[in-house]
Structures are given as C-alpha cells and as structure tokens.
Specification:
Elements: H1 3-13, E1 25-27, E2 45-50, H2 56-59, E3 60-61, H3 66-71, E4 85-87, E5 90-94, H4 99-106, E6 110-117, H5 125-134, H6 148-153, E7 163-165, E8 180-182, H7 195-208, H8 215-232, H9 260-271, E9 278-283, H10 292-317, E10 322-327, E11 347-353, E12 360-362, E13 383-384, H11 385-395
Parallel strand pairs: 1-12, 2-9, 2-10, 6-13, 7-8, 7-9
Antiparallel strand pairs: 3-5, 4-5, 6-11, 10-11
Helix pairs in contact: 4-10, 7-8, 9-10
Length: 399
C-alpha cells in the first residue's frame, strides 16, 4: 500500500472525511504557453477548480456586444450591472450573483482574467481536466508522473507540511510522493473512522511492522492526523465528544456547500497556524447543457459567497494567501435549445489574494465575430492557464 492508496482508503472510511469601467486598468501578457514555475509563497497557494466547464461568458458578460446578444437565449442574459470591467474596449458586466466578486475587485482583492484556457483544442472533460491537473499542454508527452500541485510544491514543501485537498478524495493534481491529506469538512474536527482507539491500533501496527513498505508512510500520516486534531483542540484525547465548531472571523458566513465548506476547512487550519502551503478545493456542477437561467445563479452564488467569506476571514486573521479559480474549458458561444451551452474553449479565471494588483483586469479580449471565434463557435483562448498560475504565484511570493 502506497501513500495514495492509503489516503484513498482513508477517504472511503471517513478520514478524507472597478471602479466604474473606465477606471479599471488593463494589463496584457505575452501569450506564450510555458511550464509552471513555482516560487516560495508568503501564504498558501489555493486552487478552486470549477469542474464541468464554467461558462465564463455567463459570469462576466459582454452585454453590449450585438454578437453576444444574438447568440444567447434572452432568458440566459441579465440587465447590465454596476462597475463593468473594460478589456480591450469591450465592457464586461458581472452577473448579479457575482456582486461579491465585483466588490472584491474594487477592494483590490480580486483580478478577473477572461479568455483563459488550454492551448489544446480538446472539448473532453476527462482530457481537459487531466491536462490541467497534470500542469501540461497535452498528454502525448509528459515530463513526469506528478500532478500539477505536487510538481509546484516539490522542493518548496516544508518538512512539517503537506498537500491538503479540502474534499473527500485527493485530486489528480496531487498525484506523486509528497505527504497529502484529503478532508472536506473540518467544522467538527477530523472524524476518525472507528474512533481514536482503532486509529491508535493501526499506528501501533505500522510502528511494529517496520519491514512493511507502507509502514513508515502510514505511521507518519496517522501521526499527522492526530497532530492536526490536537492542534484544533488542545483538550482532545478521544473522539467521544466533538470539538468546538469553527467560527469565521469575517462577517460573511460560510455556507454548508462547496466551495464554502472546503474553504472553511482551509481557514480553520490556518487559524491555528498549521503550516499549510498548498490546497485544492473542487466545486462541481458547472456542466450546464441545460437549465442555465436557474443553475448559473445557484452555482455562482455558492462560488461568490465562499470566496467572499474566505477573504474576509483571512483579512481578519491577517493571513496572506493566493487563490486561483480555474476550470477545464468554457462553454459554447451560442446557446443550445435547452437554455444551456455545450462544451467550448475559452473561459474565465480569477486570482484572489493579499497581494494582487488593484483594480486591474488581465489578459486580452479576442472578440466575438465569427472570424474571432475559435473554430467559428467558441470564445478563443488568449491566455494559457499556466500563465495565470505563474503570475499569481509571482504576486504571492515572499519578498
């Protein structure tokens, strides 16, 4: 049993238990995809991954572009909102449910980055997610067997730290040989399967059977879990009573849904100074082939509330952090007959954190005429996703 198998078993049994438009500055990067190059961060690097292919055009919409108006069913659009973002002369309006994101941008805590995606042309969820989670351009030739976050953390991870997935399973992005733990909800601490006594027995077995190849890894992982629980609650000895629920120091509450639950778990670890450097949060449900008019407000409301709650909490705790929102690809420019959109190409990324540039929008707007669209049907990618990660890490680096 290796570390990944041990943690997957643990998961199954419960361990992984604008300022107004014209006032917004623009910065366009060179559009060359390149390898992700990590730097030492002044706070944790967090990726929130919108699984399913989020419709960036539905989150930050060019509502004054006649091409966009003609391409989308009327019920999928909304009236222009305040504080539009201007990119290459095009006004982009935040969806009403993204009002917290607009406020974060105006406060200098968030940078939107339209037309981000893969240089690869795939529209397959499985292939696109694999490419991003491996941190590459394509899958035909891979630099190694590591996941993207493992590669970023290699050589940067402190001895007492670990990769943290705020979910029930480790993402592909954390594949490799670094310590990693998956726990979705730490609101009541770690729910040890079978009780602490059973975990103690496993720890003793791992300690006794030193010849077993997984013994050292299992013992270290169990020790890490006990250490986390003890740090969350210094009075913890057994799990006969739950530890005190976490209370955010921000004014916006965390909701009991994704991504709030995962972000709350990260905040809880940081609140007691557990040395968390790299974390991942999945937010499922963005594959909107139908029902966009009611599904988008629901999903975007969850995302906006979670990001706002986390940022307020971190500011109150005086904690630095860098958070990047990614998705595997965008949605088709034109809506389908089910008030939805099919798999597309370019989407939207967000960079949020303590040291992002104020009142800026990043990237380059490709336009929406047929000649500007990718394959004549999708928003073109003008910034590879690797560039977003690279610049986000530069913003958050020590010094």
């Amino acid at each position: 049993m290796n570390r990944r198998n041990f943690l997957q078993v643990g998961s199954r049994v419960g361990i992984s238990s604008l300022l107004v438009g014209a006032g917004v500055n623009q910065f366009a990067m060179a559009q060359t995809a390149h390898a992700i190059k990590s730097v030492q961060q002044s706070g944790p690097l967090i990726v929130v991954f919108l699984r399913g292919g989020a419709d960036g055009l539905g989150i930050l919409s060019p509502l004054e572009d006649p091409n966009f108006i003609a391409a989308r069913a009327p019920q999928m659009n909304f009236s222009p909102t305040d504080n539009p973002v201007i990119l290459d002369g095009t006004k982009l309006f935040w969806h009403p449910k993204a009002q917290p994101l607009s406020e974060l941008m105006m406060a200098g805590r968030l940078v939107p980055w339209p037309a981000v995606g893969l240089t690869n042309e795939t529209r397959s969820h499985f292939e696109a997610q694999e490419i991003i989670e491996r941190g590459v351009d394509q899958l035909s030739s891979l630099p190694d067997s590591l996941g993207m976050m493992t590669r970023i953390a290699t050589g940067k991870l402190k001895d007492d730290s670990f990769l943290f997935s705020a979910g029930n399973n480790l993402p592909r992005a954390m594949q490799g040989n670094l310590p990693a733990i998956a726990i979705r909800d730490l609101q009541n601490g770690i729910g040890f399967p079978g009780g602490v006594s059973n975990l103690s027995i496993l720890a003793q077995l791992a300690k006794v059977d030193q010849a077993h190849p997984a013994a050292a890894t299992m013992y270290k992982t169990l020790h890490q879990l006990f250490r986390i629980q003890k740090t969350l609650d210094p009075t913890f000895e057994t799990n006969s009573k739950p530890i005190k629920p976490y209370e955010s120091k921000g004014k916006t509450p965390y909701a009991n849904n994704n991504p709030s639950t995962g972000l709350r778990s990260i905040a809880r670890l940081l609140s007691v100074d557990i040395p968390l450097q790299y974390a991942w949060v999945d937010h499922d449900g963005w594959d909107m082939h139908e029902g966009h008019p009611y599904r988008m407000p629901n999903m975007l409301g969850q995302l906006s509330q979670g990001l706002q709650a986390f940022d307020e909490d971190m500011q109150a705790q005086k904690k630095n952090y860098t958070l990047v929102v990614l998705t595997e690809f965008g949605r088709r420019f034109r809506s389908n007959g089910s008030n939805g959109t099919d798999h597309g190409h370019g989407s939207l990324s967000l960079v949020m954190g303590s040291h992002v540039p104020k009142n800026q929008v990043m990237g380059h707007w490709p336009g929406l005429t047929e000649k500007d669209l990718d394959r004549g049907v999708d928003l073109s990618v003008t910034t590879p996703y690797q560039d977003v990660l690279n610049l986000a890490m530069q913003w958050g680096q020590i010094g």
